[in-house]
Amino acid sequence: MKTNEPCVLWTNRADLLKKRVEHLVPAFLGRDFSYISTFLGTYRAFATTQEVLDLLFTRYGCVLSDCDDLGGAQKQCNT
């Protein structure tokens, strides 16, 4: 690469992750399953599962279980 050529810089990791995670719910609602599949297949290269969940819960709220058993009734809360 020549020194006078423009260089494309990647957005920092946190911004990239935030943008990708914020598109997950609209992609799901819009039935863009190719985006979801691609995200789920690649996110571990740039984030942990906990980071993705934290961003989703921060952006869209969290789901709490009303029951002790798995698969019980759930309610949504916004934090």
From TrEMBL:
Gene3D superfamilies with a match to the protein in the record: Son of sevenless (SoS) protein Chain: S domain 1
Pfam families: RasGEF_N
N-terminal Ras-GEF domain mapped to chain residues: 8-79
UniProt KW keywords: Guanine-nucleotide releasing factor
GO molecular function, one term: guanyl-nucleotide exchange factor activity
Protein name in UniProt: Ral guanine nucleotide dissociation stimulator-like
